[in-house]
Specification:
Elements (H helix, E strand, L loop, with lengths): L4 H9 L3 E3 L9 H6 L7 E9 L2 E10 L10 H46 L3 H16 L4 E7 L4 E8 L5 H4 L7 H9 L6
Length: about 190
């Protein structure tokens, strides 16, 4: 969807404004629908900001009787404060999720390091590596394949999340398929 002129202006202006029936005639019909001006008699639009970047809006509308007091400067200040608290809560939630993700990654790396340093069983190490990679990357399936230099083919070592065991029995030649091309060209490829 394209940004409407008022909305675009609010993204850059970053200030709380009040729109009343007297001032809403400046908006196009499309923008009036977006801002719910056909329903609300007055509207307060508060930008939600994180580090001076607008990430959204808090739109406070009311269907007021014209005899009631319109949105005042005090109400605008209160709405701005509510917007700041909302932005702060969003930022704290984002930071908490990032911290949790980093902790999970560190725990997985510690598990892998522990397996490598304490086990001479390579299949155990590859199974742990595979499980941890699946968890860290939040993916559905992962396989570890090594180059069998005698056959010049990729050989399945460990895997998790596949619906069948076909991948364990299939050997790709170097240069065949995506995995074979990665092994042959020795660089990351994305498809």
């Amino acid at each position: 969807t394209r940004l409407l002129p008022f909305t675009l202006n609010q993204l850059t202006a970053q200030e709380t404004i009040a729109i009343t029936q007297e001032t809403n005639s400046q908006f196009s019909e499309e923008e009036r629908k977006f801002l719910l001006l056909g329903i609300a008699k007055s509207l307060c639009v508060v930008p939600l900001k994180i580090q001076n970047m607008t990430i959204g809006f808090l739109m406070l509308g009311e269907e007021r009787d014209l005899n009631r007091e319109p949105i005042t400067e005090d109400k605008l200040r209160l709405a701005t404060s509510i917007g700041e608290q909302t932005s702060s809560a969003i930022q704290r939630t984002r930071l908490y999720k990032q911290t949790e993700q980093r902790l999970m990654q560190l725990q997985a790396l510690t598990t892998i390091e522990h397996a490598i340093s304490n086990s001479f069983d390579s299949s155990l190490v590859f199974n742990i590596l595979t499980q941890q990679a699946k968890q860290i990357l939040e993916i559905d399936a992962v396989a570890t394949q090594l180059v069998n230099s005698v056959e010049n083919k990729l050989q399945y070592i460990a895997g998790s999340g596949f619906l069948t065991d076909e991948i364990a029995n299939h050997r790709l030649g170097l240069g065949e398929g995506l995995a074979g091309r990665v092994a042959f060209e020795r660089k990351f490829l994305f498809e």
